[in-house]
Amino acid sequence: MAAGIAARTAHFALHRMPDSDPTIGVVLPKRWAKRAVTRNTLKRQIYSVSEAAKLPAGAYVVRLRTTFGGYRSATCLLLKREARAELQQLFAQVAA
Fold it and tell me: Structure pTM?
């Protein structure tokens, strides 16, 4: 994360370090996603969107910067949709 932020959205930051192998890492602190089921849901969304994105070679870390709050359940469809849309926006910033 010392390489700086390559892209940012309201809830996520994407750090990139130029590298030969494309890899992705995830940092979801408990202070922003209290329940494990929420963290796991967000991880699944991150990995799913990153596989579909055409990213340049490098090591990437997606970091949750603030909480997704006000949802009825930790895995509600609205949370998944909003997270996916925001992650697609995040990866599109780097791919462009």
Answer: 0.88
CATH class of 5-95: alpha beta
In the chain, where the domains are located: 5-95
Confidence check: pLDDT of 56 > 90: no
Question: Could you write out the DSSP letters of every residue in 51-64?
Answer: HHS-PPSSEEEEEE
Residues 6+ apart with CB under 8 A from 72: 78
List all residues 6 or more positions away from 77 whose beta carbon is below 8 Å from its beta carbon.
none
What does the longest C-alpha to C-alpha distance in the chain come to? 42
